[in-house]
Amino acid sequence: MSIVELGRLAHRHCVNLFCAHRLVFHHVPKCGGTSVGRSLRRAYVFSQATVTPVESEKAFNAAKSCRPSGGVGHVSELREMMLLYMLYSDVRCVSAHLPFSDIAFDSFADRYSFVTLLRDPIERFISNYYWNYSRSQAHFRVAESFGDFLSTERARGMGSTYVRYFCGQPGKKFSTQHVDAAIRNLHRMHLVGFLDDVGGFQASLSKMTGRRLKVGKENVRNTAAKRATILEGPLRSKVLEVCAADLEIWQAVQNLRDRSAPDGHRQSVLEESRAKGINAPINPHSDTNGTGRISVSQDRR
Fold first, then answer.
1. Which pLDDT does position 65 carry in this prediction?
2. What pLDDT was estimated at residue 174?
3. 3-state helix/strand/coil string of the chain
4. According to the model, what pLDDT value does residue 139 have?
5. What is the Cβ-side half-sphere exposure of residue 211, based on CA atoms within 13 angstroms?
6. How far is residue 141's CA from residue 199's CA, in Å, rounded to a whole number?
7. What is the residue extent of each domain of the chain?
8. CA–CA separation, 103 and 11 (whole Å)
9. Which of the residues in the chain have pLDDT under 50?
10. Which of 35, 86, 214, 279 is the most buried (most CB within 10 A)?
11. In CATH, what number does 11-286 get?
12. How far is CA 137 from the centre of its chain?
């Protein structure tokens, strides 16, 4: 047996020993996923992979420039294909900015655990804006002031991030039916955590994987003061309107909070979130489609 073959056997032994539980972590932007992803990659060092947003978009644009009539119509479809490739290759941990895929889940839910971490949509939206606004050289930089940004189509897309990530149809134009699909898919997933109880998510994820995980704090920006100013000022109603779709999803999945946590702890987490004044009901006046439901952005970035 050659040295190369011995190396492959040793690697396969380590993979089966240390990376037995297969996992897909859907990393939603500005939901604490960077820390989770790095913790998972350390635990799954022998078999892990990711898909980076900037490089995958550059690859998509390069391919489209050569084949404008190609079969892939949106970068999300390319990322879905990359996810499927990694799952068929038996990569044990995939942690990436990847939307939920009906095809991937239906094909691999019996072998892989599909998990994610969510954050209050208003907190997530404001944090996402300031993250992109402050990075002058970033690929997805936002140049407008917060007030001006709220009137853009990109803002409506950013406010519908949960729809885009969990409707199960990457690259499609979104409708209110996709909000219902996102809610259903989140209830199908093996574990849904919440950033305001990241300790509970860490414990559940460690139990699931059989690995000792330590989720730190990375890419943290203190936007609490800016958020309070925005939500106490004239822009509050506009923010609620822009984030209406994600707020509906957020409110519909609160029953997925870790059942293993003591009732008193769960209640205190909920009360603390409500005390911030950011779990306001969806503004019924934001509906523009005559159905009594929120309107959903067509932005599919």
1. 85
2. 75
3. CCHHHHHHHHHHHHHHHHCCCEEEEECCCCCCHHHHHHHHHHHCCCCEECCCHHHHHHHHHHHHHHCCCCCCCCHHHHHHHHHHHHHHCCCCEEEECCCCCHHHHHHHCCCEEEEEEECCHHHHHHHHHHHHHHCCCCCCCCCCCHHHHCCCHHHHHHCCHHHHHHCCCCCCCCCHHHHHHHHHHHHHCCEEEEHHHHHHHHHHHHHHHCCCCCCCCCCCCCCHHHHHHHHCCCCHHHHHHHCHHHHHHHHHCHHHCCCCCCHHHHHHHHHHHHHCCCCCCCCHHHCCCCCCCCCCCCCCC
4. 66
5. 22
6. 31
7. 11-286
8. 29
9. 259-270, 272-274, 276-295, 297-301
10. 86
11. 3.40.50
12. 23
DSSP annotation of 25 reads: E
In eight-state DSSP terms, residue 127 is H
Identify the residue whose tokens are 């999803």. Answer: 249
User: In the prediction, which pLDDT does 294 show?
Assistant: 47
Q: Is 116 in a helix, a strand, or coil? A: strand
* CA nearest to 261, candidates 183, 193, 215, 209: 193
